[in-house]
Amino acid sequence: MRSILRAMFAIAVAMLAIGFQPTTASAQSVSTFLGGSGTTSTTQQSWTTAGNWNTATVPTGTAVWAQINSSTSPILRILYTSASLGSGTSLTVGAISFLPTLAVSSGSTYEIQNNSSGTKGTLKFYGIDTTIDGTARRIILDNQTSLSDVNFTQTLAGQDFELYSSGAINVAAGTQLTLTPLIRDGSGSGTVTKIGRGVLSLAGSSTSSTYAGGFSLEGGIVQWAASGVSGTNPFGSGPLTLRSGTLRSTTTTGKSINSNVVLDGSVTLGSTDPSFNGNITVNSSSGSLATTIASNSIVTIAGGSTAWNQSTSGTGSLTLAGSGQVRFTSLSTLAHTGSTVVQAGTLNLQGNMTSASAVSVFNAATLLGTGTISGATSILSGGTFSPGAQGGATGVFTFGSGGLSLAGQSLMEVAGVTRGTQYDGVDISGPLGYGGSLLLQFSGTLADNTALELFKGFSSQSGLFSSITVAGSYTGSLTESSGVWTGVFGAQTMTFTNSTGNILIVPEPAAIGLVAGVGVVATVAGLRRRRTTTRLASRKRAVEV
Question: Are strands 255-257 and 215-224 parallel, antiparallel or unpaired?
């Protein structure tokens, strides 16, 4: 006896063609229906043969149930061999009265399979609920070669996805698919692609997805709850490819990525929504993970900050946008050969940018840090450049042979006389182009005859700042004449010289004259006292004689 029961799509057509009477019938476990309407190769394969049903009665009627029973793991398979069902022929789940609910009991399998060699079809559920009971069940994604899109329009929580082949998860706009735990791998090399405008929430916080083919974000929102500690990677062991969409935390708590990252499009990290604005850290795992910039990519830091510990490579360009901050740490070596554009937000560079490609900082964007840039760097009008970190953390930013061109605002902080640790500095081995404004923020006054090396090492210099302003312990501005900027602050004179890039603080000349004048008066008074004393002594001796 065969344990597998096969039913062709013609089962539904045959049932629609027969005048049904309300009844219940069960197919014999030996029956495999390969035909319909009485046309079969053998009577044992016919839907209309009474002997193929329990009670020896062909099911008829408009409210009929066809029950497929077997003692061991029954399989109901609707199998058709044509790539096209023909005009006017369809199987609609939910509209046929004999099948308002499809229940698959434990140990059983329900399959709809297309055996044709042509294009495979799509199974869709319209206007009905798809329910998985409260007990955790596995959803197995498998068709051996490639998986059609898996579409979800409801929240599905607490389920286990088991991946046997690569495919896409399509979450419709305005809906959310929640996976807890994460995705298990049944084949070893499956790839998951997220498409659709909805939210895919990877809610597992203590487990890790095990598939190795990688995760690709190509639309909508992906959010995850794992903290990012070792062993809790929701994106599997393969690369995380970011092409389109938003990647964010499920909460306000920071999250970490422990995957090789591929930037290949326009993606948003973080969120302006207060509920999902946790900071993101892209980990390096002691340098073993890296970021590939595969195309002209745009990364928008929507809110908070993103710490990028990975090094970069590839031929693509990188554009940073959004109101947040991305910090390439000292673990990062940026070696992609395309340009880097800071279109908005803040680039905090602590690592090294080794390629000779250009770096541009646009209006309302900021470049800060203590890193190194080899290529030509331009701070455009409206952009801001600040060595160290704004808010009191001073440091030295280094530019290579590509040089530095300033046309926006340069902000440098001074808290003492030690370069790098107490005041900001800029090292340049290439040309320096002055321009825009310079703001010097002082916290404390400096002693007379103090020199500060703001800009150092440049091969040539050109241009002029439009203004130099000082704030804090000194308040005011400097005026320029022949490349030398001068300002008087109390008893001190401050100068900045274009050719040297240095600030010099000396006593104010009028104060020197005042001190000198006081000395002359004191000398004259002393001479007068000595002369008077001498005359009195001479008179006294004359009287005594």
Answer: unpaired
Residue 7: both structure tokens together: 């039913």
Collapse the DSSP code of 408 into the 3-class scheme (helix H, G, I; strand E, B; otherwise coil) and give the result: coil
Beta pairing class for 325-328 and 345-349: parallel
Strand 384-387 with 484-489, pairing: unpaired
Rounded-to-integer distance, Cα 371 and Cα 400, Å: 11
Lay out the sheet containing 75-80: strands in order across.
Answer: 4-8, 75-80, 109-114
Per-residue pLDDT at 272: 85
- Residue 50 phi/psi, 5° resolution? -60, -30
Are 459 and 429 in contact by the 8 Å Cβ rule? The answer is yes
pLDDT at 275: 85
At which residue do the structure tokens 């809110």 appear?
A: 303
- The alpha carbon of 531 is separated from its chain's Cα centroid by a whole number of angstroms, namely 87
- Nearest residue to 194 (alpha-carbon basis) of 244, 135, 136: 244
Q: What are phi and psi of 275, to 5 degrees?
A: -80, -15
At residue 15, what are phi and psi to the nearest 5 degrees?
-65, -35
Quote the CA–CA distance of 239 and 88 in Å, as a whole number: 46
Residues 6 or more apart in contact with residue 473 via CB below 8 angstroms: 442, 443, 444, 445
306 bridge partner residues = 280, 326
Query: Are 128 and 95 in contact, with CB atoms under 8 Å apart?
Result: no
- Token pair, residue 129, equals 């609920």
Predicted model pTM: 0.72
DSSP state of 459: S
Mean pLDDT by 10-residue block, N- to C-terminus, for the chain (545 residues)?
36 36 42 40 53 61 45 47 39 34 51 51 48 46 40 46 73 80 67 88 74 90 76 80 94 86 94 87 78 93 89 95 93 94 96 96 97 98 92 91 98 97 98 99 97 98 98 98 97 98 91 44 46 51 47
> String of b and e for 336-363 (b: at least 16 CB within 10 Å)?
bebbbbbbbbbbbbbbbbbbebbbbbbe
- Predicted pLDDT at 287: 60
